[in-house]
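Spend some time on the protein that follows and explain the fold to me:
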Amino acid sequence: MSDRDEAAAVTNDEVAALMEPLTGLIAQAAAAILAVDRSGLRVDGKSDGSPVTAADLASDRVIAAGLARIAPRIPALSEERTHLAARPYEGSFFLIDPLDGTREFIAGRDEFTVNLALVSHGRPVLGIIAAPALGLIWRGLVGRGAERLTLTADGRAADARPIRTRPHPGPGRAWTAAVSRSHGDSRTDGFIAARPGAIRLALGSAVKFGRIAEGEADVYPRLAPTSEWDVAAGHAVVTAAGGTITDSAGAPLRFGTAARSDFLVPDFIAWGDPAAAQ
């Protein structure tokens, strides 16, 4: 049996058993980011034009070393190591953004995250989102619920509390739409305009998924391309909390398939209430 075949055999109970060690690992990655001095930070450009900093790379090193120890037989795809990707991922694999919201980090804002998902047969089944500067972690196991935790000053995750999405507002009540602080697009603007009186909640990075999962917002539309590692962890957290995520036509998203070699999700909508997506 090959390593890829063994990765395909990860069971629901094995996934659940990974949650605590993975949460601890993401807390360590969050601490590594906070240890980087943002004053005078060197910013390099990647081939796609996006920025990368010492904080991205420090977080990635922590996560790579931790996954090699915690789950050595499960392949991992990180934004910072896409050259090592071997599609398609037919079984289980980790999908990682070591620092989502690098532009927010560079600008001195607090809305940046560490994202980790475990994807099985194209669907995120476990997700962890840490917001280091906010002192928060959102995590979820699909079918078993979602939680919000506190990041302590010494780099641990504590005080886990269950969270759940909220029902959609219904007729005559305003929607709260989480929107990107740094990446606007006309299709998303049109989606929100079609809901009269909708309140825009501008946020950076995967924090938007966390706010949907804990019932602070109703919908998060992103009707322009983004990367799989920006979405997968939030997909698992929102789904575990009772919501759903589809593409703009209402179809489910797939991750790690052979259909896309560019790691892009063309568009998506995260719904706090699945009934609203009908």
The mean pLDDT is 90. The two ends are 42 Å apart (CA to CA). Helices lie at 3-8, 12-34, 54-70, 102-106, 186-193, 207-213, 228-240. The CA atoms of residues 14 and 261 lie 29 Å apart.
